[in-house]
Amino acid sequence: MTAEAAPAAAGFASLDALVRPRSVAVIGASDEPARIGGRPIAYMKERGFAGDLWPVNPRRATVQGLTAYASVEALPAAPDVAIIAVPAEQVIPTLDSLGRKGCRAVIVFSAGFAEMDAAGEAQQEKLAAVARGHGIRMLGPNCLGLFNDSIRFYGTFTASFEKGFPIAGRIGIASQSGAYGTHVFSAALDRGLGAPVVITTGNEAEVALGDVIGWMAQAPEVEVICAYAEGIRESTQFIAALDLARRNRKPIVMMKVGRSQLGGAAAKSHTASIAGDDTVTQAVLEEFGVVRARTTEEMLDIAYAATKRIYPARNTLGVLTVSGGAGVLISDAAEQAGVAMPPMPEAAQERLRSLVPFCAPRNPVDCTAQVTNNLPLISEFAESVARDGGYASILSFWSQTAAGRSVGPSLQEQMRKVRAAFPDRLWVMSMLAPNKVREYEGDGWVCFEDPSRAVNAIAAMGVFGAAFARAEQPAAEVPLPRVALPEATPSEAVAKALLAEAGVPAVPEHACSDSEAAVMAAEKIGYPVVLKILSPDILHKSEIGGVLLDVTNADAVKHGFATLLERARHHAPAARIEGVLVAKQIKGAVEMALGVFRDPVFGPVAMVGLGGIFIEVLKDVSFRRCPFDAAEAERMIRSLKGFPLLDGARGRPKADVAALAGALSALSAFAAAAGPRLASIDVNPMLVLPEGQGCYAADAVIELDGGGH
Amino acid sequence: MTAEAAPAAAGFASLDALVRPRSVAVIGASDEPARIGGRPIAYMKERGFAGDLWPVNPRRATVQGLTAYASVEALPAAPDVAIIAVPAEQVIPTLDSLGRKGCRAVIVFSAGFAEMDAAGEAQQEKLAAVARGHGIRMLGPNCLGLFNDSIRFYGTFTASFEKGFPIAGRIGIASQSGAYGTHVFSAALDRGLGAPVVITTGNEAEVALGDVIGWMAQAPEVEVICAYAEGIRESTQFIAALDLARRNRKPIVMMKVGRSQLGGAAAKSHTASIAGDDTVTQAVLEEFGVVRARTTEEMLDIAYAATKRIYPARNTLGVLTVSGGAGVLISDAAEQAGVAMPPMPEAAQERLRSLVPFCAPRNPVDCTAQVTNNLPLISEFAESVARDGGYASILSFWSQTAAGRSVGPSLQEQMRKVRAAFPDRLWVMSMLAPNKVREYEGDGWVCFEDPSRAVNAIAAMGVFGAAFARAEQPAAEVPLPRVALPEATPSEAVAKALLAEAGVPAVPEHACSDSEAAVMAAEKIGYPVVLKILSPDILHKSEIGGVLLDVTNADAVKHGFATLLERARHHAPAARIEGVLVAKQIKGAVEMALGVFRDPVFGPVAMVGLGGIFIEVLKDVSFRRCPFDAAEAERMIRSLKGFPLLDGARGRPKADVAALAGALSALSAFAAAAGPRLASIDVNPMLVLPEGQGCYAADAVIELDGGGH
């Protein structure tokens, strides 16, 4: 991935003219500061944009005190970026003029395109073609624009600034929804969080969310990315953006709402119909360590904690609390969020017990309210948690004690010192002392009133850290097989053979026309075997006694071969008999289902799940973009809720997870190599034997586009 | 339940002396306002407690300016309540003196009891016995006490008041943890929520959480109950308290943390081992419509919304938004929280579309930012949502628009009027206008910055409303059967017979010693039947061909009878043959598991789940206290994640859910009637046939206490 991503990263900088312009034209500029065409000018004048600001208005000599230009052609030069705030029908000619003038970036406020009707959609396609023709990067149409307060550039008509302009900070907001993007900005502002770069993409005729995230991933203005998406329309830049952000250690917290528009896309195959909703997007986000926020509040909690830029690759949580009850609550929350809380070393526990006899020093470390009567103990406990516990993250719960007249100042002083002595840790404070929050933050603390919210934010830092650490390891190359798909949809036998060649083993079986061949086949496969009559005219073999189980030696094979032929002649005298199928007898297997389908945005996506009801009723499945290695395949398998069934639950032997992971990875490589003609693959059931005995596909269907049904 | 609950309610008022005393003695009173024995006096002096306040201190004439008494005996009268703040070893003699003086309520601050060690536990038992001997209601020991600001009574040594004393309000906090209870109080205070009654129960030697909740359920001081529990130790008062609160329409929001101490209790039976953790407590809370909060923040969100006392019995949510993105986000949150968002009537949608052409009026009703250019439209939209939509709850999302200089005042004015015109609705505002919150609250709004938190709170009001509505319906009496348990653990056959008599049908089968009897049995059962050889010496019947399926008429029964006897003689000549078992042949059944176990706190609890892996791996089960009616049983069944398997998933016929619900309810009645000797029942598998065809237990185990294994 590293090799391909570099040029993509360079591509992201092509948004510089859009986000960091030195000259700005406003087409449709208004003298009224409150009108859509007036707001960008008013904001930039108020904030002191240092570049050139050129209003274009054919009916006025000046706009808001600035020299106005009658037309694009009349502009003194090509602006770095042009803001287009004209009626829909004038947008395309305006864009064309701008292109001819040499402008290479535009922000289109105007609505009346794809969001409206089919005619609008057609207009938007024309618009995008004009932009592409001129090599213009275009934000919108129907977008609220963007702002980058680091250079005081305000290419937006949002009304969000009545409460104030952005404060300093390193949070960037990338949003498909203008209203929601500025909502997050405004909520951040209320919390004292600086988000000086906000980019909203609107209809995404040209610049899409991935471009914006990618730009932020390489821009020094932004260290933490908040993204809001309703649907991902484009994969190449999106994937490259996530990859770049990960490599540059910039965390992304994303809110992805609604049913993906992909959900409804032709549910051609079984696997695709299971995918539904936004499972594929979810799988992609997980792959790159993007944390999905469930609420705006959670998004900002995580972004806030991330401003400390401490992302533990292996997160552990130490908890220091004055309340045993809160300690239990925090432990519950940590378990839920998947953050480990290893116990303190025994020796340290003993020492703390000698300091406060009734303390509970395991972890959570409950120092009890005793310490409020003997304040220097606070340092002792905090230091021990940091030094002896060695936790990557430390959550300190003081409730209203922190606000106390007597305890408060001493607590703050001691905690400041201990924190300063271990600056590499993520120090989080949970307290009920609203008027102390700014002071603690000044000391370097992350502060949350609610301990559960604190735990969620801490967990997210660990997810980021683990993803960043993975990015630093050279990715295992997944070798792609050579795949030659047949012309038409292959039969089951051909499908199995194709997959087996690629490393997805099928149940070993041989069609044999005489009993000698049957014995040879059985010896090759290994006993016991199953014998089945082979005839295109006998569909229900077992009804005529056409299946023999537990055939354990050569004599039995010979005997069985004769028996089956006799039964067939007797019960179905007219049937064409081709011989006997000799197959490995599989016993005690766990039935899994593997699959692949082509996502319209992200390409081939592989799936694994437990067979039958697990998939269809419980949706207990895991998805990943193809290809991926066996280690990743095993992570997918282990993430299944039903994984215990493979891991020795109910007294079963452990299943051969390694073989299953190998087959799943091989399937993903096959799908990646097969090219766009591959529509879907279903391997169901995939029979997984006990450890060391492998796994075998008992059925396989490969569907091709245009393969017909 | 109604009949029994009345006396329990009277019982709760016996805490009046504890929570609403007219005279208070403080044993171990200190002249130092900051010391544990000094704080209650200092607080009551500062707040102006109107009753008598009697410090007891043998070494001083006055305490904090009040006349001190040398001993309990020297008190001018028996105090309504005595606060005991003396060293552990003096607690019992002090309590005894108080009892002899005529005191009937005490609060024991002193620690050094069950929280310490076995000796402390023994001391605590003695203490409880002394209290009971004198008829004293005792809070603690090892508790932080309680306060009731409505009468300025402060029987607590909490240090929480440095930030301020309680403000007016109707929230009561009942907590097993003192530190956590006051944390919630203090967090509420920071949010402007009044919680003037806080009661913490400490070691619960006598008064337990249920008593406290029960007192709040009947006390006018409290309208909304916030409870915090680590484990429920006592069921009678707890259940009566939940029932009373529900009947008095007082919502309870509870935080229950940690693994219940019951989880570890002897996992004697299969069913009990599945229960684990706190599933039983959870089932009890659900039964009474108690909402479980996951975080302190959520607890206070719900308590805050509940202060409006609008609890829709059938909750529906209408959403009015200026942001389409937020609308999608809110819809996602509502689906997750289980709140229905039915669409607006078509005619209303059309009218709104005629007002704002590009609005999305379905629900969420997205009025778009257009309305900010034509402010009177706000009323039109809000009124339509309330009147035409008829929603019980209305969430209005305005983001930072509400703070705008131009839009803000008009928005507030219009929304105030519309809200006032529909005062029976739950009106919730989501906006980013911190300085406007108090004004909106004054207008009657519930305000949340985060729309997801708003949705969760709205959902909780519906849960309360539905529970309150259920309480108003006369509970269906579940008739209890007469159950005569055998002396020893019964055999499978006896267990099945006992259960069948109680209404839990078993697979019909008859042991027949001759072929005439077999034919009669088959005719009675109905064809097809299964024939099985009956012999105590033949364990694996099918291995000797001892099972015949699909026996469809009398001749076949006769013939089969002879065949089985002949095979038995041939393959197992020494075996004792008792005849043939004729059983109904069950085909196409869904396998369920039913069970009962005796919870040490809540008594017999019934369980239902889908068979096999569903239960053991996925824990997809539902629990309920016994007995319950068939309607409740059906609710349990329908709450299973795997319910689609019974409801026609994967092309199956629908299963006979009504029969299953009947059997489950009958099982619960059997368990309730069986008395404490019943340890557990496992009915597994319970075979559920297609609709109209019933369900049949294929196996049943009844375990008795002392019944041996």
TrEMBL record, chains A, B:
Provenance organism: Paracraurococcus lichenis
InterPro entries: ATP-grasp, ATP_grasp_subdomain_1, CoA-bd, Ligase_CoA_dom, NAD(P)-bd_dom_sf, Succ_CoA_lig_flav_dom, Succinyl-CoA_synth-like
Occurrences of domain ATP-grasp (ranges): 496-532
Protein name: Acetate--CoA ligase family protein
Keyword check for DNA damage: no
Keyword Transmembrane helix: no
Highest taxon, organism lineage: Bacteria
Keywords: ATP-binding, Ligase, Nucleotide-binding, Tricarboxylic acid cycle
Molecular function terms from GO: ligase activity
